Amino acid sequence: MYRYTTGVDNSDRFYNVTLYIGQPPRPYYLDVDTGSELTWLQCDAPCSQCSETPHPLYKPSNDFVPCKDPLCASLQPTDDYTCEDPNQCDYEIKYADQYSTLGVLLNDVYLLNFTNGVQLKVRMALGCGYDQVFSPSTYHPLDGILGLGRGKASLVSQLNSQGLVRNVIGHCLSSRGGGYIFFGNVYDSSKMSWTPISSIDSGKHYSAGPAELVFGGRKTGVGSLNIIFDTGSSYTYFNSQAYQALITLLNKELNRKPIKAAPDDQTLPMCWHGKRPFRSINEVKKYFKPLTLSFTNGGRVKPQFEIPPEAYLIISNKGNVCLGILNGPEVGLGELNLIG
Question: Of 125, 193, 261, 320, which cross-links 303 as Cys (Cβ 3.0–4.6 Å)?
């Protein structure tokens, strides 16, 4: 078994890695997404709707994945899906931030450098995305998505099925820039806290819980939260109970602070202005308190996941500070709590 590690860049607020794909292998910048399983590239199939890309559009191979292949079935919304072409796997994927991709599944070569110095060309499935719809609020140039979810089509699952790595992923991402992700084995367990994957979500997400919501070190009374970790989402989403509790606590906390609600700023549902425009989160984070998710199923010691103000606030183009935590039911997430 091998272990694969790659550096992460977070320019333009999005975490991306460089992978080499195709024959000959060419570099592509891929957004890291633990909330979905498919790795795909914007594709010259030809492309009917593609956004700006850092590199030329991917030229697809002719090695199509059949419609009834298990990898294709993993990408379909239901088990009884129909095949328009038995020799081709068509897919549509919708993301939490209201963008989507249409494409066809095919096989091509990934060039991977493992940590023991071995370089392998591994043939695996990827998506040829020829019709993308992007949300204006989260748009940025990208070549594609690196899907690291729990489904059969994810890169790690495919590597595991070929006997190359264990079915383990991890990441260490910094808000100040950079970091790394690793596949196949624990990279450094000395400073890790552990909590079990939730049995409630047996699907394709990495879900932990239940957890309690803590605001500024004090319990909020909101508990039994099941948490999904999704690096591909620009925002964090709470269910109605947690969201409304947070808004109430924030309004109470900010009541005597020198910032006031800015309802005219439509960047996000909740924004505040100061006496003068803010230029960075550092100028305003002192008015906000950290959030903590306290996981209750981790044994006697409760694992704590802290979300500091700089991780849940953004500065709008108007120089206001806005809450980057949204009400999940308003975007169709129901009772899900998603950490982006």
Answer: 193
Per-residue model confidence (pLDDT) at position 13: 59
Whether residue 170 sits in one domain with residue 129: yes
pLDDT at 22 over 70: yes
Contact 221, 255 (CB under 8 A): no
**pLDDT surpasses 80 at 25:** yes
pLDDT of residue 137: 58
User: Which residue in the list 97, 108, 143, 230 is annotated as catalytic?
Assistant: 230
Domain of 114?
A: 4-183
Respond yes or no: is residue 85 known to be catalytic.
no
Domain co-membership, 177 together with 289: no
The answer to whether residue 193 is domain-embedded is no
Q: Are residues 47 and 144 in the same domain?
A: yes
Higher local confidence (pLDDT), 227 or 65: 65
Domains of the chain: total: 2
Same-domain pairing of 97 and 221: no
**How far, in Å, CA of 51 to CA of 3, rounded?**
33
Residues 230 and 316 grouped into a single domain: yes
Q: Which two tokens stand for residue 159?
A: 């590597």
Edge-to-edge strands, sheet with 321-323: 260-261, 271-273, 321-323, 313-315
The pTM for the full model equals: 0.76
What is the tens place of the pLDDT at every residue in 218-230? 999 998 888 888 8
Token pair belonging to 42: 């914007």
Pairing label, strands 26-33, 144-147: parallel
- With beta carbons less than 8 A apart as the criterion, state whether 94 and 7 touch: no
pLDDT tens-digit series, residues 260-272: 999 999 999 999 9
To the query of whether residue 9 is one of the catalytic residues in this protein, the response is no
| b/e 325-334 (16+ beta carbons within 10 angstroms → b) | bbbbeeeebe
- The residue from 33, 97, 108, 143 that is catalytic is 33
